[in-house]
């Protein structure tokens, strides 16, 4: 990742990553939220004996007809936006702190660069750390996005109270294992693709100044790698978190998807997800780099 010439210390690095990640994460969530709503509804639809929607386009049209644009696609945005700020700041913070740890442990300078395999390992660690922040946010988001399909009116606070009443505070972390697996593998691919393409653009030039289109294309490739690699895990996770009765196990859900829909059932909603992930990831990395460069510290 490009490194502006600023003072480096573990404390300054930490503050910089948290600030930059929070702002970039919240901004990208505003763009991607409508696509994410359709993705979750499609995944839920495919888990039913009779799917609610024939295709992603059908889901978009029916959601719009039922609730209009803002309520149909942006209802419930605020909690995920704050969740995205926490998620991205945690992800970039843990990713860069892992790099600093490796450098300090072997006596290197913080400004030195790591090899791509080392960055992949740091990316996986970043995903593991992020999963603990992300699981409650995604559980509430998935429940909200699906419950609004019916006539029942609900709110995020109501869902929080319902989950805690059913399973205690620990219930908010339902699906942690699948989220951890998805985030570890997905973040490794996310950062790996991004770093690899930037390395190709810079051709080894240490102080290379990346152009906006290069940052965006690297970010877009990062989004593709993340979702194409771990989308089946995400599908199982979403259905597991939506199941309020807790009657389905992870393996049971996977077996049902394969039995009813085959391998392609695990990729229901991938198209609309890539439509949001490619530009959203491009915007995220571009805003991350620009915000980081603009910080006064």
UniProtKB/TrEMBL annotation:
Domain of life of the source: Eukaryota
Entries under InterPro entries matching the protein: MCP_dom_sf, MCP_transmembrane, Mitochondrial_Carrier
Keyword Transport annotated: yes
Protein family (similarity comment): Belongs to the mitochondrial carrier (TC 2.A.29) family.
Solcar repeat windows: 12-101, 114-200, 210-294
GO aspect biological process, one term: mitochondrial L-ornithine transmembrane transport
UniProt name for this protein: DEKNAAC101645
Species: Brettanomyces naardenensis (Yeast)
Single Gene Ontology MF annotation: L-ornithine transmembrane transporter activity
